[in-house]
Amino acid sequence: xxxxxxxxxxxxxxxxxxxxxxxxxxxxxxxxxxxxxxxxxxxxxxxxxxxxxxxxxxxxxxxxxxxxxxxxxxxxxxxxxxxxxxxxxxxxxxxxxxxxxxxxxxxxxxxxxxxxxxxxxxxxxxxxxxxxxxxxxxxxxxxxxxxxxxxxxxxxxxxxxxxxxxxxxxxxxxxxxxxxxxxxxxxxxxxxxxxxxxxxxxxxxxxxxxxxxxxxxxxxxxxxxxxxxxxxxxxxxxxxxxxxxxxxxxxxxxxxxxxxxxxxxxxxxxxxxxxxxxxxxxxxxxxxxxxxxxxxxxxxxxxxxxxxxxxxxxxxxxxxxxxxxxxxxxxxxxxxxxxxxxxxxxxxxxxxxxxxxxxxxxxxxxxxxxxxxxxxxxxxxxxxxxxxxxxxxxxxxxxxxxxxxxxxxxxxxxxxxxxxxxxxxxxxxxxxxxxxxxxxxxxxxxxxxxxxxxxxxxxxxxxxxxxxxxxxxxxxxxxxxxxxxxxxxxxx
Length: 492
What we know:
Amidohydro-rel; hydrolase activity, acting on carbon-nitrogen (but not peptide) bonds; alpha/beta; 2 domains; Metal-dep_hydrolase_composite; Metallo-dep_Hydrolase
């Protein structure tokens, strides 16, 4: 039906060029008038424009008042600002924030409530498109996509982890797309066929699953007292990149350390799925100066035009386990079901101990504040020197309630703005830059005819005020307008 409407629209538009009248026939459409549309590409703001959608697509954007026929709803956007829906290019939608697998089994009612609210929580803060960068529970991706009201969801195909490495801690883990690397100091189990775990086989299988990303990892581990995880060789990474591109996949790689970023800059991967906050032997001091070795690695990433996700909230979310007042934040009531929020409050000390043991909270908080500042400095250097910044939060990144869905993205934006990233850049990276990096620009990233009808109607100008992203009047998802309050977990 949408293709027929699009063809009809094209014909009618050609005719209207001669008659100076734009006539559009829609079915299940939307007419927005008096629209101030912000372009994420050049930051221009049109005034008194009209937008017409049909089904889930934008079919007209222009100054001329269209003559719309058929079934449609009219919205007067006078005094408001229209931007494309936001894209979070690094999420994990299949777990329950801060709950282990055992806790999920013990509290199925909390899991059910969380999963029902999850897509609405992302929409509440304007995230109309998500990219899941890895899951051990692919069936839950299907469950998410069955939700009536939800963001558009894309995904990486199961995670091309290195055999016996980070993300595959033992051979009993169910990660079907692990990549076998020759000459590692571990035996390959007889239960697997090596030919099924080559870069060629894994990339082909991931592409056939419908994924748009091949996600792999460079992670030697977080505890220097423990043996290192196996990490990919340059030859293996080169082969993964070649096979990913052969299958029209984006190569995104986990890595947050100086060692990882140095390796991946040399490999010229497509996307660094984390910022450089782990500086190895370097530590941020009172001078707040970026060490030369850090600059050199970031310069290499800039030169290679590697997409760089700062993911500042990974560190901040862990730090919130030390903050007794965090769970009293009323914003959480919009994105978390009350019973789950109550569970977090009752078990916050246990959750802290599960992650940090008996370590004093003030010491943990101090260390994470320093690491967070290191991440911000790296991000600012990338921005100031022409780096390719992308918006991704890694929500939720670890067993913490400090990365709530949707709200975590808004907090990431606040951190970026506070660190000196221009507001126009934040808008671009969360829309058109993400769309381009993940080959989705034909359908997302700008407000144009032919794009997906995923729009935000804001009460403030996001180029002047970062809090505009928390002052949303309506969310339009797949052509369906929704008042923001209807998406809240506590709308009643």
